[in-house]
Amino acid sequence: MSNIDLHKLAQDIKQWGKALGFQKVGISDIDLSQHEATLQQWLDNQYHGEMEYMARHGMMRARPAELLPGTVRVISARMDYLPPDASFAKDLKQSDTAYISRYALGRDYHKVMRARLKQLGEKIKLQVSDLNYRPFVDSAPILERPLAAKAGLGWVGKHTLVLDEESGSWFFLGEILVNIPLPVDKPVQEKCGACVACIKICPTNAIIEPYVVDARRCISYLTIELDGPIPEEFRPLIGNRIYGCDDCQLICPWNRYAQITDEQDFHPRQLLKSQELLTLLNWTEAEFLERTQGSPIRRIGFERWQRNIAVGLGNANYSEDIIVALESALEASTSELVKEHIQWALSQQKSRPSVSKKTLRLTRSIEKGLPRDA
C-alpha cells in the first residue's frame, strides 16, 4: 500500500462514484465518540420504540471498527431520489387519495444503492489488492448521518436528516467501510440557523426538540416499523399517509434547491402514485405482493398495509362508498389487527354529518358551471 497515491485514489473514488450514479461521495475517519452519549440517552428514553435492533448492538453504531475489524475510513455516498411530478400538495389535500412517502414510490433503494456501492468497492479493490471492505445501506448498526456529515455530504438538520445547501434532503445515504487510510474530507457548516419549520409542521410533534426525534410519535415509524395497533391518539393525525411521511422535508427551505432524480428506478410506479384509498383497500394479498415486488413497501406486509389504509379511510371526508367498503372489508378480514382499525375507521366516518346525494350533485353541477336542472 505504500506505493499507492492515496490522494489520487480518493479523487478517483469520487469520480467513479459519480459515474455509478451517486451525486456526491465523501470520506471520513471513524471517530464517532462524541455521539455516543447522545445515542445512549436516546435509547435510554425509549425513543426507538419497538425497533429493538436499534438497541441490540449498543455502542457498536458509533464504532465502525467493531462492525468490520480493521476499518479506518468510511466512504459515504449520496443518491438523489426526488421523483418528477411528485404531486405532494395534490395528494395530501385529497383526503380519499393515498399518500405514500416519495422515496417508496419506486424500486427499493436498498437494492439499487448496495449494488452500486459494491461496484465501487470492486473498482477500489482493483487498485488496492489487499482492500477489505463492506457496503451498507440501512443494513447495519452504524450512525450513517453523522458519518455523512463528517464526510462533507451535508449537515444534520433539526429533523435529524442530512441537508445539503445545493440539493436539500431528498437523497439516500450509503457507506463503504474500508481498511485504507484515505485522506478525509472536511465537514460543512450547519446552516439551519433559527429555523424550526420542521419542528412546527410535524403532525404528531415527533421532533420533540431540535435534532431529537421520538420515533414512537413519528408517522413513518407508526406506518412502517410498528407491528401492532397504531395508538388511537395518533390515528387522526396521520391523515391519508399510509406509508411514511414527508412533511418535515416538504417545509424545509433548503429543499427548494432539491434536484429531480435521473435514476429511473426511483421514478414512481403508477399503481402506487396518487391512488384512491378505496382502490388500494380492494387489493387482495396476492395483488399486494405482485404490485409491490421490488418495492420497499412490501416489507410491511399485507396486514399492516390494510391497517394503514383503514386509518386513512377513517380520516377521509364522509362517504357512503367508504362506509360500504369498510363494512365489506370488516366482514371479509381474518386479522384482528385489521378489524380493530376498520372498526375505528367506521366510527370516524359515521360520526361525521352525511351529505345527501342530491346536495352533492347540486354542488358538483355548480362547480362545473352547469345549469342547476341539468
From TrEMBL:
Catalytic activity, reaction form: epoxyqueuosine(34) in tRNA + AH2 = queuosine(34) in tRNA + A + H2O
Residues that coordinate or bind [4Fe-4S] cluster 1: 192, 195, 198, 252
Ranges where the 4Fe-4S ferredoxin-type domain occurs: 180-211
EC numbers, comma separated: 1.17.99.6
Active site residues according to the UniProt entry: 138 (proton donor)
Entry keyword Membrane: no
Keyword Iron: yes
Compartments where located: Cytoplasm
Gene Ontology molecular function: any one: metal ion binding
Named cofactor requirement(s): cob(II)alamin; [4Fe-4S] cluster
HAMAP family: QueG (MF_00916)
Family per record: Belongs to the QueG family.
Protein name: Epoxyqueuosine reductase
Gene symbol of the encoding locus: queG
